[in-house]
Specification:
Elements lengths: L8 E8 L7 H21 L9 E3 L3 E6 L5 H14 L8 E8 L15 H16 L4 E5 L2 H18 L4 H11 L4 H7 L6 H10 L2 H15 L1
């Protein structure tokens, strides 16, 4: 896909916390899990994800969204997907959403790209790691607009910090627009509709859904 220098993109940068201390086989399998999450994200937002998710530094990843409005929804789904399939994988992650123009993405390798959105996202991820200021953050050059969007992102990220694997699976389904019945039907093992409903309630999904609507209305 050719980069449009006149439009804004969202660059989502993330990494696993405590990755280097994990066994080699866990670190390797986490690479494949991130790739699976990226493929599922591309399936859900085919027109908004021009390049596949890219891994860098062993424990980090980046993906680009052509539509910044859905950036929080997409980042949250990515995180929910990872948590839902954690198993022996690391579950604590950091995610930084940077919105702005991008200059280039050479050879479809996202982590080698450059431009305002890349720089904002990368710097914010480093800031989160150094200052321990939340697990999900947002930034753009328009500070007046960036502040409320960052606030919503920060609070939703704080709620996601406490999800169990089964709660994350329920949220991942809800983020796809699935009903409780549909989420139940797609569950990998036997589960009742009531249990799925309880999982969603415990994640504070009703409040998260409102936060996403406010974010997307403000960002559009």
């Amino acid at each position: 896909m050719k980069v449009d220098p006149a439009k804004n993109y969202a660059v989502v940068s993330g990494d696993f916390i405590g990755f280097s201390g994990l066994p080699a086989e866990t670190r390797e399998s986490s690479y494949h899990l991130v790739k699976q999450a990226g493929a599922e994200l591309a399936r859900l937002f085919p027109s908004a994800m021009p390049w596949e998710v890219d891994m860098f530094r062993g424990d980090g990843w980046q993906f680009v969204l052509a539509d910044p409005v859905i950036s929080l929804r997409a980042a949250l789904f990515f995180r929910a997907y990872l948590r839902a399939r954690a198993g022996g994988h690391p579950t604590d992650v950091r995610l930084a959403i940077g919105v702005g123009p991008i200059d280039y993405v050479p050879d479809n390798r996202v982590s080698a790209g450059d431009g305002t959105a890349f720089r904002l996202s990368g710097r914010l991820l480093d800031q989160i790691a150094m200052q321990k200021t939340g697990s999900m953050r947002f930034v753009m050059e328009d500070e007046k607009l960036s502040l409320p969007l960052d606030g919503i992102t920060l609070l939703i990220g704080a709620l996601a910090d406490n999800w169990t694997e089964r709660q994350a699976r329920a949220v991942a389904g809800a983020l796809q627009g699935l009903t409780i019945i549909q989420i139940t039907e797609q569950w990998p093992d036997r589960i009742s509709r009531q249990a799925v409903g309880k999982h969603l309630a415990r994640t504070r999904w009703p409040e998260i859904r409102i936060g996403l609507k406010i974010f997307e209305s403000t960002a559009s």
